[in-house]
Write a structure and sequence with these properties.
about 425 residues, alpha+beta, Alpha-Beta Plaits, DNA polymerase, domain 1, Dna Ligase, domain 1, 3 domains, five-stranded antiparallel sheet, 16 helices, 13 strands
């Protein structure tokens, strides 16, 4: 049996954790640059605050109901996510790295095959209570023979929290069929908006009706192998096992919108250097090195005046003399590319860095004519990564990244970083 553990309104829960005065008050959290709503408490949902709706449009409703509003606090959310996942690893078993798959910042799959069927609900309830007791974060849990059915069970666990205690177990086929009959196709894990509309137009409205279709039909109409596997999973045949904790990516990117349009070259340099450092950190995390670096910048307006030689998105790349994972060896060519792309008089709204041509860092081709100090450089990068990870921020950074960073995204309503900053620790008066 597999379980999905899903944090309830995770970002809002994190904000409430250190603010007891918000426990009964509706809360919403905004996206990058305070653009749109990405998390809502149950109270905010009840007042009709739309998910993913623009913040400026929701302001009248937010003021009317005295809803607390926060900018995204990724330092806090990242640290609380790590605490939740570590708690799950402790609860599930000694070989937790094989039994817990972190699916997203607020979700994880767990293998409960060692639990007797009659103990599944009790075990899931124990996990839920322990996670909340140890971390302060409320979770919902769905348990079923497959990942898809577990997600479906979790959906029903959240629909009526008071009745389910945020736990739903679909152990028998009868329970699974009953749950599927009351689940719209659009709420099935893996069925997107376009496929949901397609199925409804064909008269297939719920998960049970979909499960009764032949696998061959699903392969033709629902994305090939993925569609066939979806049917199997709905029928209780596991085809999606728990994934390894780390998958090696073929390309790594780091990109952000600017807090306000940028016109100064120095700001572009600082942003590109910062994004390069973040991409390099991800690169080292999967023990890879990059042979190609690409940089792009995006103008604020898609103008095609004769005074400007390029279109809306401007990009360029270079191949490095040797694959590397050292931040200092990546920043220099990245900044040079940014300088070549920049046009004076133009305002830019976004920049990004992509690393490709990835190889294992153990197979980097050496150079007979260049002194080898890779071990010392690797130790330095490892130390910087450890410090920055412990603080959930780039506390240690290269000078090229700047100090003022006027280009950073807006976070005007961000709460304190209670768990990663000494100067922002929670105070009791």
């Amino acid at each position: 049996m597999k379980a999905i553990i899903d944090c309830n309104s995770f970002y809002c829960s994190c904000e409430r954790l250190f603010r007891p005065d918000l426990q009964q008050r509706p809360v919403v959290v905004l996206s990058n640059n305070d653009g749109c709503i990405v998390s809502r408490s149950d109270e905010a949902k009840a007042f009709g605050v739309p998910m993913a709706g623009p913040y400026f449009q929701a302001k009248p409703l937010i003021r009317q109901h005295n809803i607390a509003v926060f900018s995204s606090n990724y330092n806090l959310y990242g640290d609380m996510s790590w605490r939740v996942m570590e708690t799950l690893r402790l609860l599930v078993g000694d070989h937790a790295h094989k039994k817990v798959e972190v699916y997203s910042v607020d979700e994880a799959f767990a293998d409960l095959s060692h639990v007797p069927p009659e103990k599944l609900y009790e075990t899931a309830l124990h996990i839920r209570h322990t996670v909340e007791q140890w971390t302060g974060i409320s979770v919902s849990i769905g348990v079923a023979p497959t990942k898809t059915l577990a997600k479906l069970a979790n959906y029903h666990a959240k629909k009526n929290k008071a009745a389910t205690q945020c736990v739903k177990v679909l152990a028998t086929r009868e329970e699974q069929v009953e749950a599927m009959k009351t689940t719209r196709v659009g709420n099935i894990w893996g069925v997107g908006y376009s496929y949901a509309n397609k199925l409804v137009n064909m008269g297939i409205t719920n998960a049970y009706e979909l499960s009764m279709l032949p696998e061959e039909w699903a392969a033709r109409h629902l994305g090939g192998v993925a569609g066939s596997r979806l049917i199997q999973e709905l029928n209780g045949k596991p085809v999606k096992d728990l994934d390894a904790p780390l998958t090696t990516k073929k390309m790594i990117a780091s990109t952000r919108m600017f807090g306000s349009p940028v016109t100064d070259l120095n700001d572009i340099r600082e942003a590109v250097a910062t994004y390069t450092a973040r991409a390099a950190e991800k690169l080292r995390r999967q023990q890879s090195a990059a042979a190609i670096i690409s940089v792009f910048i995006v103008p604020r307006e898609e103008r095609y005046d004769s005074n400007f030689r390029r279109g809306a998105t401007i990009s360029s790349y270079t191949t490095l003399p040797a694959a590397t994972a050292n931040t200092n060896e990546l920043i220099k060519p990245a900044v040079q590319l940014a300088e070549s792309l920049y046009e004076k008089g133009r305002a830019y709204k976004k920049a990004g860095v992509m690393l490709s041509g990835l190889v294992p860092d153990t197979s980097i081709q050496g150079n007979l004519f260049v002194p080898q100090e890779k071990n010392l450089a690797r130790l330095l990068m490892h130390t910087i990564d450890n410090i920055n990870f412990s603080m959930r921020d780039d506390v240690l950074k290269f000078a090229t990244s700047g100090t003022t960073r006027n280009w950073k995204m807006r976070q005007e309503l961000r709460s304190k970083r209670y768990t990663t900053r000494w100067e922002e620790l929670y105070e009791v008066h």
